[in-house]
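Here is the promised in-class demo. Please do not try to memorize the tokens; focus on the logic of going from shape to residues.
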């Protein structure tokens, strides 16, 4: 059983800040910044590609609720939402989860996007492939 399923079952202790029928939110053990929180569905889904759609909708409501609580309680004005899917994306626990990472002045956390220069043709080709 995965580590987050064990947290849901209470086999591993965690600092829980929210629970309902479908979701659990608890403090990330590594606290990238103070208040770093994880939100998970209680049911085990490996990643976003297999997450149930109606659950995903409800999950966003929980994300909003907890974001507002963190903002108010920690006095923050900035926060990153992060979700890693797959090893290449840095997922280390294979139970879908969303990171809520409050941001502070000089908090030392570096999340930096690299840039790729694409030609107009490359953009068009890409669009043909992925447009829904
Ligand atoms: P990922 O890298 O998969 O996106 O994030 C997994 C997160 O789970 C990491 O930030 C890590 O600190 C956190 N984590 C791993 N094991 C435990 C645990 O047993 N308890 C808690 N609270 N967090 C954990
Ligand atoms: Zn699990």
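The designed amino acids, position by position:
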């Amino acid at each position: 059983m995965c580590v987050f399923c064990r947290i849901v079952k209470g086999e591993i202790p965690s600092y829980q800040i929210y629970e309902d029928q479908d979701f659990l939110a608890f403090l990330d053990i590594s606290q990238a910044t103070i208040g770093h929180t994880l939100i998970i569905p209680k049911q085990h889904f490996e990643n976003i590609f297999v997450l149930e759609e109606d659950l995903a909708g409800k999950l966003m409501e929980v994300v909003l609720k907890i974001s507002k609580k963190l903002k108010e309680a920690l006095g923050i004005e900035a926060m990153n939402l992060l979700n890693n899917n797959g090893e290449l994306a840095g997922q280390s626990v294979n139970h879908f989860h969303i990171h809520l990472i409050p941001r502070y002045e000089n908090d030392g956390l570096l999340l930096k996007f690299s840039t790729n220069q694409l030609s107009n043709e490359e953009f068009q080709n890409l669009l043909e492939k992925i447009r829904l």
